[in-house]
Amino acid sequence: MRRKLFPLGPIAIAILVTAVAYGCGGTPLPTSPIATPSVSQSVIPTPPAVSISTGILFYSASAGENPAGTLNVCNSDGSGCRVLANTSPDVHEVAVSPDGKYVAFFTTDRDSDGLLVAWDIRSGDTLLSIQAPPETSESFFDAPPTRYMAWSPDSSQLAYVLGRDLHLVGVGGSDGRTLVTHREARYNLAGLIKGSIARPVWTTDGTRIVYDIFNTPRVRSGGADIYRDVEYVSLSDETTSVVMENARIASDIAASANEVVLKHADGTFFLLSLDTLSVEELPSPANCGLMRCDPTGNLCASVCSDQGELNTINFTAPDGQSVHGIGISDLTGEAAACTIQSVLWNAAGNTLLAAVGCEDGHASLWAVETTGWAPTHLTDWEGIGALSLLAWPE
Fold first, then answer.
1. Is residue 162, in this structure, part of any structural domain at all?
2. pLDDT by residue (tens digit) across 362-384?
3. End-to-end distance of the chain based on CA atoms, in angstroms?
4. What pairing do the DSSP bridges indicate for beta strands 363-369 and 300-305?
5. Cα-atom radius of gyration of the chain, to the nearest Å?
6. Could you tell me the CATH number of the domain that includes residue 245?
7. Which residues share a beta bridge with 198?
8. CB neighbourhood size of 229 (10 A)
């Protein structure tokens, strides 16, 4: 039995406008400047013909019951948008390296034959091309198969989950190996039950990888993937150790660059340090789903929720002190059924772009300068769902 996971709601393609563009008065761009992607294929996609040295690199997916993801780039003024490659329709299956030089992505969804590909986005070289066969489940009790990627802090290695297992490969394909295999157990009635691995995160020093793993015999029909055990693996000898049982990495809750939030099955939250792997209880985690700090390290922007939706941008100093806040009503004039989909800093760290999407498919793009904090409206779009800003190469 093949089971497709994490079905996306209606998602359409959006074009991003950078801070350079908002001085042009927010002239509307065409509604759909990016072509609808063709059916994904299990051949190596052609890398960019020229270096992507400027502009916005972003992921998007088409609308419909069977969305198709694409990796796209626009010029820094919002013009010249084009599709670079077809990708998986899941944003967790596209990742840019910390140094902004490389992008890795799966070319198809989990039900299809495809590849894991990595490009050097400046030179256009193909660095990796790894077969990615369809992910399958044979039992209703199986933990859902997942695909994830995480670049090492120095951008030299890529950890990825494929075939339910955690793998590691160096840039250019060196040192390819399987680090951790998924757990399996056999039961009288249910038969063979397969676990899976998800949400890999590197420690700050790049010597270990933290992940969560479904461990049998805790069979949880319909919820097997929710609460696992959090472990880490040492790259030097491939030994694994348990960080916390019956918990998961709460990747939907924002934390600082050297911390992740863990959620225990009893509802308790914990903060895991990626410096020391120490754990401390987190009495009241922030209701934030995204945090991005500017390249200069002076400000961080967190997209947070005050009523169950991601509808506020909180600007904070490095010490955590609040500097400014912008609500979605400051951008759109109303907060109903709209969320802040994605944010991106410019290289100077003085302008933040924000994309707002609404349930009716309307979207708007805004620029916020940190000198005056007044949001500048860029343009409006129709038929827009979710999107993700990946990088702004320089």
1. yes
2. 777 788 999 999 898 876 666 66
3. 46
4. unpaired
5. 21
6. 2.120.10.30
7. 212
8. 19
- Strand (E) positions, 136-227? 148-151, 157-162, 165-170, 177-180, 184-187, 191-194, 197-202, 208-213
Q: Which domain holds residue 207?
A: 137-284
Q: If you ran DSSP here, which 8-state letter would residue 181 be given?
A: P
Q: Give this prediction's pTM.
A: 0.79
- Burial label, 106 (beta-carbon count in 10 A; 0-12, 13-18, 19+): buried
Structure tokens at 107: 């070319």
Sheet with strand 363-369: strands edge to edge: 338-345, 351-358, 363-369, 375-381
Residue 102 lies in a domain: no
| DSSP string computed for 137-157 | --STTSPPP--EEEE-TTSSE
pLDDT of residue 222: 42
* Higher-pLDDT residue of 300, 222: 300
Structural domain includes residue 149: yes
Is the separation of the CB atoms in 383 and 63 below 8 Å? yes
Q: How far apart are CA 270 and CA 130, in angstroms?
A: 35
Q: How confident is the model at residue 11, as a pLDDT? A: 34
Question: Residue 274 is encoded by which pair of tokens?
Answer: 């990626």
Number of domains in the chain: 1
Residue with tokens 């003024």: 77
List of residues 6+ apart from 368 with CB closer than 8 A: 313, 326, 351, 352, 353, 354, 374, 375, 376
Amino acid identity at 293: C
Residue 128 inside a domain? The answer is: no
